[in-house]
Structures
1.
Amino acid sequence: MSGAAEERLATLVGLGALALGLCAAFFVVAISPGLARRGHVPVRLYLTELGGLREGAPVRAAGAEIGHVASISLSPAAAPGPLGGQVGVVVELALATAELRRTWREGSAVISSRGVLSARYVELLPPAGEPGPPLRAGDEVRGVDPPVLDRVLLRTWNNLRITRRFAEEVSPAASQLRRELRALAAAVAALRAEAGEGRGTSPAQAGGGPSGADPLDSLSAELAAVLDEADRTFGEVLGGRAGWTKLLVVAARAQALRGAAQASWAALSGQVTTLQVDLSEALARIAARAPGAKVAAVLAQGRAVVAKLAVVAASAQLVWQRWQRREGSLGRLLADPEFPEDAKELGKILKRQPWRIFGRPPEETGGEMKRTKE
């Protein structure tokens, strides 16, 4: 074969290889994405935090994989969508058409994983009520933002500081309230003694009713019950010797403590109402027999005590309502069903394989390596 023929053959082989490469590139760029999208419908998921989610991550629903994450893009400020103009990300999900029956338009979407260091995936959860219709092509879903560890710790610390500040602000008022309740009890006792001496009769004779009971006796008993209830409530809720310590150290018992505190406040409110009625009746009867400045002072003091009780009760009720709604990072963290398993797995890794988080130990020095080679 002559040199010209060989050169012509080499040229033809090169042109053929170049044409084959161009065809392969065209298939990958233009045809392959269309084939991959065939049989899938696009659904947009809006989040403010990705939480380690990557493109290509699977999408699961009802224990089965029904699609994957096609793309992740930025959602700028003031952009239309479920984020309401907030900066976030748009995760485009490619869901298999045959598996749409496993989805719910009124459900929720969360970023989940099988462990602390496992890969993240999108999980579609059913709604609390009726399932409703499935997702359709082009639907936009507002996902549940995954918790970020540093942000959770920061918000938890802020919540603890708010709790401590609330205890410091309410504790003096509660102490002052208890002192005023005791002063009111002493004033009622003194007034009862003076009224008994002025009448010159026994408490049973001064009752005037069929039962023969003195309203001052019932008033003193109700006031003593209110004092006991206030002391117990202060010890359990407002940071007595055990209340706040248990709240900060044993978070698992917060639910039971909340129920006990609500019951205590309910009982205290009922007794305060009864005390107010008895106090009004007793003061009205005493004022008819022994009017004076002391009766007016006791009446004003009783009204002030009742008003402060209402303020303290409203403040405590507000705190328990926030805890019941699971507001704040601590409530969300306790409500996360995967948090105990993640904490256990992270503890095992820190104990057995700490180099997976902190890095491997440094390599041997140059001298030791040289002696090894020798």
Note: The two ends are 59 Å apart (CA to CA).
2.
Amino acid sequence: MGLKSNNLVEDKVGGISAIDEFLSSDDVFLQDFNKSRKKLTEFLKAIIRHHINSNPYYADYCKRMNFNIEEDEFDLNKIPLLPSAIFKNDLKFVQSNWDDSVMLTTSSGTKGTVSQVPRDNTTLMRFFASVAAGVQEVFEIPQSNLDLYCLSPKLEEIKHLWISYVITGVSLYFPSKFYVSNDEFKVEQLVSDLRKVDQDKNGKKIVIIGPPALVLDTTKELAKTGNLNLLDRCLIVTMGGWKSRQGDIVERKELTQRIVEAFGLLNEEYVRDVYNMVELNTVIFECKHHKKHCPPWLYARARNPQNLTVQASGELGILSFADPTAVSYPGFVLSDDFGVVHEQVKCTCGIVSDIIEIKRRVNKLESRGCALKI
């Protein structure tokens, strides 16, 4: 017999409809932090019940972890986490209540193996809703008079590679151009289009989004052909890691300076970064003060790599996430990244949230040790 379940379709307190309403609410990042945390707790309790009832492997895992969702004192820090490595194995361990809409989204295989994450329509639509909220409220970008230049292929060319969905999530809201095709970065075409923008001082503003290596390539091309003077008419957004370009890695501060100089931006506020991984159904956006704001529908904590206990605010650990927006798989994941979570910070941008810093990747030995502890 399954656990007592909130109706995931109709429940207006902790179920799916309540989450969707929250995701689409005005100024969701500016709502009272404590009230939002209470809502998040209810969302997580409801979705955990769903996964326990729909996924026998996760249900058994919860039993082995002595986790009881019906305890009076529900502790967000005790939600059983899945190591990200499990998404590289048999999908039966992560599937929850699949239907015909489920598709497999994949990582690019940073460490040589590919993660596969099953996403149904509800999970994908919530992901796109989270992107919309981040673009509008953290990036503070209006949905008008703006073009998006994507340093990636079109979605139909890449198919199920997750980074393309992240970029597509942004491109849904603006007229977009794409500058990668057949594994070729069309940097000369990009620079040509940018020069037209530079010359038309009264034209549309633009956002350029792509992996840091391709943004770096663009700065090198501009260094050869002449820098731009885009001032406040361009926002550069980097996302993802350096993957196969490890030899080209540039420290973040230096990269930002090179971008500002090459594009002729007004200041460093016009260079941003976002964080996501294929197992996470939410994008974490960076504000103009370069703070990555954990959205109010996501719970993030850094964990001690020795015993996976939660670190104090500001202490380094392995980042973990509890994301209630994922329906087709349990979105409770121990990541492959070391980082810091600063709890309930009042940022000068006006948002009160947990702030996330990404420090480095977990190496293979560390990853194996953490997986064995779960």
Note: The mean pLDDT is 87.
